[in-house]
Design goal:
It is a single chain. The chain is of the alpha/beta class. It folds into two domains: about 1-30 and about 275-430, 2-enoyl-CoA Hydratase, Chain A, domain 1 (Alpha-Beta Complex); about 40-265, Rossmann fold. Helices cover about 35% and strands about 25% of the residues. The chain contains 15 helices and 20 strands. The chain has helices at about 40-45, 55-60, 80-90, 115-120, 120-125, 155-160, 190-200, 215-230, 255-270, 295-300, 320-335, 340-345, 360-370, 385-390, 400-410; strands at about 1-10, 10-15, 20-25, 65-70, 100-105, 130, 140-145, 150-155, 165-170, 170-175, 175-180, 235-240, 245-250, 270, 275-280, 305-310, 375-380, 395, 415-420, 425-430. The strands form six sheets. A six-stranded parallel beta sheet has the order 3-19-15-16-17-18. It has a six-stranded mixed beta sheet with strand order 6-5-4-9-12-13. It is globular. The two termini are about 25 Å apart.
Length: about 425
């Protein structure tokens, strides 16, 4: 028997796979020592920006500054990074009253004061103005157009600032290729309709995908809008396989981001010799709501069509009934042609979860498209069997039951095991 481990609730859990399974890949990335000096790394990045002058050389004391910060779906130490950035602005002579901090929520829910204080500390919250972006606000300002012709509007406070700084994270993203860069502005502080149009029209475009930049119109549109707004400067964490900071980059929103992507690839790329019959993957580090299905994207890249994916998911909070019911209704309506139904909805900008946020609809669309191609077994202590089955998953109450189900679907399978599904970039050597 092969003894190995998988990540559950951030901890390693040992388990044995069935003896008849042929383990092709145990995709544990080399441990990278996390930095204990995020503040120092941020200061170093700010003093050595990529394709940009230092902020102290670009700014005047009279300038107003909007700092766009990613929300709490990412575990980056954004409070430490923000504090170091504010210290750099202080060195540039910018008074506190000229600085606004905007939580770049996209279409996500607003953060409570308690959540903001927890992430950034009471001292910063009392000293600076923090605001949640509202994608439905009536005073959003037009800054450009998508290739579809849709006008993109952004947060008025961001638009009216003399200078815009984005704080985000570089990690694999199923549509944009990688997180970070211009995403902090679009969709981070954009309007609902343009985000919907962009996501629905380009998610299933030929060039869109995890780790893809070249030929990716989803990514290109993000860059174009960030340039036209404009986004002036970024500070991005580069996250490792444990969802911790390995390094930071700062500078030009496009070129610094590309440099961060190359560093990210060095850390989180994993080669696979060929596709497996069955892949075991975790949702780590994703635990919030619809985010937990994102690792199905890398799993689908390394699993044979018609094969089996076992998704081990930790969930904080709950999955809304409307989200679960949307899965159930879609399966009943579209039967064996889930992918065709998803493509029809997306091509016409029709929400699958009516009235739901775009992130829930994206999770629905991408999951349904993958369910069209694979048998997916869901293992979770947090999601009841009835709810999992209404979502179209095969439910297992533990790994051993999941292995039994997997063996029934794929007898004597070739197997990949991916302990950290949300922070890996699969590189497939042979397309088979």
């Amino acid at each position: 028997m092969h003894k190995t481990f998988i990540i559950k609730r951030g901890e390693k859990e040992l388990f044995n796979i069935p003896p008849e399974w042929n383990l092709l890949t145990f995709a544990i990335l080399d441990d990278q020592p996390p930095t204990n000096d995020v503040s120092g790394l941020t200061t170093k990045a700010l003093r050595n920006p990529i394709e940009s002058s230092r902020l102290t050389e670009r700014l005047l004391p009279s300038d107003t500054i909007a700092i766009l910060v990613e929300d709490l779906t990412r575990a980056s130490p954004k409070g430490v990074i923000l504090k170091a950035a504010l210290e750099e602005l202080e060195r540039a002579g910018i008074p506190d009253s000229n600085i606004q901090i905007i939580m770049a929520l996209g279409t996500h829910r607003g953060l409570t004061l308690e959540e903001i204080e927890g992430a950034f500390g009471t001292e910063l919250v009392e000293r600076y103005r923090f605001n949640n972006h509202d994608c439905h606000a009536p005073d959003l300002i037009p800054v450009g157009q998508l290739r579809t012709g849709r006008t993109v509007k952004i947060n008025r406070k961001v638009h009216e600032a003399h200078f815009r700084i984005g704080i985000g994270s570089v990690f694999p993203h199923p549509m944009n290729g990688f997180g970070g860069g211009g995403k902090i502005l679009f969709p981070g502080v954009a309007d609902f309709d343009s985000i919907l149009d962009h996501h629905f029209q380009y998610t299933f475009h030929e060039g869109t995908g995890l780790g893809k930049i070249e030929g990716n119109l989803f990514y290109r549109q993000v860059c174009d809008i960030a340039r036209s707004a404009p986004l002036d400067f970024i500070i991005n964490s580069i996250l490792d396989q444990n969802d911790q900071v390995n390094d930071l980059i700062a500078g030009d929103p496009v070129n610094a981001h590309l440099a961060g992507i190359e560093k990210s690839k060095e850390i989180i790329s994993q080669e696979f010799d060929r596709k497996a019959d069955l892949t075991v993957i975790t949702s780590f580090p994703y635990t919030e709501g619809p985010q937990i299905v994102k690792p199905l994207a890398p799993a689908s890249m390394v699993t044979k069509e018609g094969g089996c994916i076992i998704l081990c998911a930790d969930l904080t909070g709950d999955l809304p009934d409307a989200f679960v019911d949307s899965f159930h209704s879609f399966h009943r309506e579209h039967g064996d042609d889930l992918l065709g139904g998803v493509l029809d909805h997306f091509s016409h900008n029709r929400l699958i979860m009516k009235g739901g946020a775009i992130d829930f609809n994206m999770a629905l669309g991408m999951t349904l498209a993958i369910q069209h191609r694979f048998k997916i077994v869901l293992v979770s202590e947090d999601i009841p069997a009835e709810k999992a089955e209404r979502m179209g998953f095969i439910y297992a109450d533990g790994l051993q039951e999941a292995f039994e189900i997997g063996t029934e679907i794929c007898p004597r399978p070739d197997v990949h095991i991916i302990p950290s599904g949300g922070v890996i970039l699969p590189i497939l050597r042979a397309h088979c």
